[in-house]
Specification:
oxidoreductase, Pyridox_Oxase, Split_barrel_FMN-bd, globular, flavoprotein, alpha+beta, EC 1.4.3.5
C-alpha cells in the first residue's frame, strides 16, 4: 500500500472574504480566471472537469476545455454521441470543477446542460484548425476501435477527401451550455481553515451567498 498521509502543504497565497466579492458568481469567476491567467501557471487555465451520471448509473468525470463563459453559463464542445454526450442527453444535471493549483483555488459549478444553437456550434467549429475539424469527424468518440492505426488511416482518407475543400461540422458534434444553479468558490487557507463561499440561484434571478465551513 502506498501511504500518502504525509502529503500536505500550507495554503497561504490568498483569501476570500464577503467584503470583497460581487453579487453574482460569474463576475467572481471572471476575476479569478484572469488572475490565474495573469499569474502564469504551467497548465491550461480553461481546463475543467466535467462530471455526469452515466447510463450505467455511475458518475464519471473527465477533463475538457472551457471555450466560453458569460452570464448565461459555461460552454464546452464534444461529440454528442460520446459517453458524456449520451449521459447528458439522459440526465442534464452536471458538475463542472476547476482546480487552479498555482493560486490554491477551486471552483465547483452545479448546473443544467443543454445543447447550444447550431449557429454557435458552427461558428466555433469553423474557427478550429482543419486537423481538429477532421479529428472530430473521424473519431466516433468513446466507441471501441481495433487500433490507433485504424484512426490514423481513416484520417488520411479524410485528408485526401477534403483537400482544398471546406470541412462541414458533423451533426453529432457541437456545444453544451451549462446554466449554473450553484457555484462554490474555494480558496486554500492556512491550518485547513479554507474559505468556501457558495452562490445559489434564486427564483428572482438573484444569488444567495453563504459561507461554508472548511
Amino acid at each position: 500500500m502506498n501511504d500518502l498521509s504525509n502529503y500536505r502543504k500550507s495554503y497561504e497565497k490568498s483569501e476570500l472574504l464577503e467584503t470583497n466579492i460581487p453579487e453574482d458568481p460569474i463576475n467572481l469567476f471572471n476575476r479569478w480566471f484572469h488572475e490565474v491567467e495573469d499569474f502564469g501557471g504551467n497548465g491550461e487555465v480553461n481546463a475543467m472537469t466535467v462530471s455526469t451520471i452515466g447510463l450505467d448509473g455511475f458518475p464519471k468525470s473527465r477533463v475538457v476545455l472551457l471555450k466560453k463563459f458569460s452570464e448565461e453559463g459555461f460552454i464546452f464542445y464534444t461529440n454528442y454521441n460520446s459517453e458524456k454526450g449520451k449521459a447528458i442527453a439522459a440526465n442534464p444535471h452536471v458538475c463542472l470543477s476547476f482546480f487552479w493549483q498555482e493560486m490554491e483555488r477551486q471552483v465547483i459549478i452545479k448546473g443544467i446542460a443543454q445543447r447550444t444553437s447550431e449557429n454557435i456550434s458552427d461558428g466555433y467549429f469553423d474557427s478550429r484548425p482543419d486537423g481538429s475539424k477532421l479529428g472530430a469527424i473521424v473519431s466516433n468518440q468513446s466507441e471501441v476501435i481495433p487500433s490507433r492505426t485504424f484512426l490514423e488511416e481513416n484520417l488520411k482518407k479524410l485528408e485526401a477527401e477534403f483537400e482544398g475543400k471546406a470541412i462541414p461540422r458533423p451533426e453529432n458534434w457541437g456545444g453544451f451550455l451549462v446554466t449554473p444553479l450553484e457555484v462554490e468558490f474555494w480558496q486554500g487557507r492556512p491550518n485547513r481553515l479554507h474559505d468556501r463561499i457558495r452562490y445559489q440561484s434564486q427564483s428572482d434571478y438573484s444569488w444567495k451567498i453563504e459561507r461554508l465551513s472548511s
